[in-house]
Specification:
Aspartate Aminotransferase, domain 1; alpha/beta; Arc Repressor Mutant, subunit A; globular; 8-stranded mixed β-sheet; single chain; 3-stranded antiparallel β-sheet; 13% strand; Aspartate Aminotransferase, domain 2
């Protein structure tokens, strides 16, 4: 028996031999190959059988005894602990049986696994432009200061200087004027979606969502157990009258009004006002996701819903992930003051607060003017990449579809002519291009056919060759 265990040991040094001996004997006990009461060889004899040192066996036996798998019996040696064999019998569980209904629904929302090195990943910023050296200096400075409050439980609602920085940022960029107490720092926009859904809604409450719409929001609402009510989107944004015609009074309305995700259209003023009126009539909250509102390339900036709602029923979500790096996982929610105070208490129970040390570095980055300079640089670079993508698409893809010139954001929608977009997405993926199908963002029967093309992550020289590969993939389908 022990000789068999010795043949399974890896002597290359990948793991300590004592650990391997421990795991081998433990596995033999759990599988029943070593039965309760079976005596183990003395440490010297076991070492000879396994061709290892005696100290290795002694260490493994001691750990097995500490974990309760064996019992040391003095002069009588060491024996397998007397455990009821019924407790050692294992049965395989079907994976579906281990999930809740909400877990199964969440697992069914396929967002894909985009590869950063692939062209046209939607929502991915220019990671090659991330100010790594500057960020490292700011982080090192904060670590040298070693303030205890940055490594404890203080400030669950957000690092106060970062909240002040966010207030300045959204006032300058979006004209939103609030107090720092109204800002809640979250783990990206996704953390804000999750927190708001659980804070304001009960299981089964209806939520209006855009159709097609953002899969991350759908996931957050499914996780909260909400009832999804898809409301169609057209060239003017969400069709409010269609939502009202559904006969469902929402508890929450989720919208991306500045540039709808994934189609890129902007919600017209008439629709904005109608939406706020409908929310007022239903006594519903409006969740305004301004996911990359920093980037507007054509026309004047649109007034946020937050500024159009005197009753204070709009919650504004933003993120730094689209301008810096998604991995930072820092976003924010702007709420009415009384709700923000409650949310700051609730967030301690949800785990949706990013590390304070990251918040502190980001606050320094914003307050010292680095973020504004970074945004100016990105606007120039992104403008060039956007123009190059539009030109290449109009020149190479005209037989297959038309690129929709969204005024804002860091991705564009290519509307396809008579080509199944799910088939097209698989074809271009085979060519090394990540361009998700618009139809996957639909909850019900797809109303759109097209591909999402993110331009922020693709340098200008790489855009035309990538579009050429995309055109070749589409040509194979017609």
């Amino acid at each position: 028996m022990f000789a068999d265990l010795g043949r399974g040991l890896d002597r290359s040094g990948a793991a300590p031999l004592a650990q391997q001996v421990y795991e081998a004997i433990r596995a033999a006990v759990l599988s029943g190959r070593l039965a309760p009461g079976d005596r183990l060889p003395a440490s010297r004899a076991a070492a000879d059988l396994l061709a290892v040192g005696r100290n290795t066996v002694t260490a493994a036996y001691e750990r097995l005894a500490a974990d309760g798998f064996v019992e040391a019996k003095g002069a009588a040696g060491t024996a397998v602990a007397r455990i009821d064999p019924a407790l050692l019998r294992r049965r395989d569980l079907a994976p579906a049986g281990t999930l809740s209904a909400r877990g199964r629904a969440l697992a069914g929302i396929e967002r894909g696994q985009p590869v950063a090195a692939s062209p046209f990943v939607p929502g991915l910023p220019a990671l090659d432009l991330f100010p790594g050296e500057l960020w490292a200096r700011l982080m090192a400075r904060r670590l040298r200061q070693s303030k205890a409050e940055l490594f404890g439980f203080e400030h669950p609602g957000g690092w106060p200087p970062l909240k002040q920085a966010i207030v300045r940022h959204i006032a300058a960029l979006r004209g939103i004027v609030v107090a720092p107490e109204q800002v809640l720092v979250t783990t990206g926009a996704q953390g804000g979606l999750d927190l708001v859904a659980r804070l304001l809604c009960d299981v089964g409450d209806p939520v209006w969502i855009e159709e097609p719409g953002y899969l991350g929001a759908r996931g957050a609402f499914v996780a909260a157990g909400l009832r999804l009510v898809p409301v169609p989107v057209d060239g003017e944004g969400i069709r409010v009258e269609a939502g009202q015609g559904s006969g469902v009074r929402p508890r929450l309305v989720y919208v991306t009004p500045s540039h709808q995700y994934p189609t890129g259209v902007a919600l017209t003023l008439a629709r904005r006002l109608a939406l706020l009126q409908a929310a007022e009539a239903a006594d519903a909250w409006v969740l305004e996701d301004d996911f990359d509102g920093e980037f507007r390339f054509e026309g004047p900036p649109l007034d946020p819903l937050f500024n159009l709602a005197p009753s204070g029923r709009v919650i504004y979500l933003g993120t730094f992930g689209k301008a810096l790096a998604p991995a930072l996982r820092v976003g924010f929610a702007v709420l009415p003051a009384e709700l923000a105070a409650v949310a700051a208490r609730v967030i301690r129970h949800t785990g949706q607060a990013p590390p304070l040390i990251v918040q502190a570095v980001l606050a320094d980055f914003v307050l010292e003017g680095h973020f504004a300079a970074h945004l100016r640089r990105l606007m120039t670079v992104y403008g060039e990449r956007r123009a190059a993508l539009i030109e290449a698409c109009e020149r190479r893809l005209a037989p297959f579809g038309r690129v929709q010139r969204s005024e804002a954001g860091i991705q564009l929608a290519l509307r396809l002519n008579g080509i199944d977009d799910a088939v097209a997405a698989r074809a271009v993926a085979a060519a090394g291009i990540v361009a998700p199908a618009l139809s996957r963002a639909c909850l019900e029967t797809p109303q759109v056919s097209g591909l999402q093309l993110g331009f922020a992550c693709v340098p200008v020289p790489a855009i035309d060759p990538a579009v050429a590969r995309l055109a070749e993939a589409l040509r194979s389908l017609v």
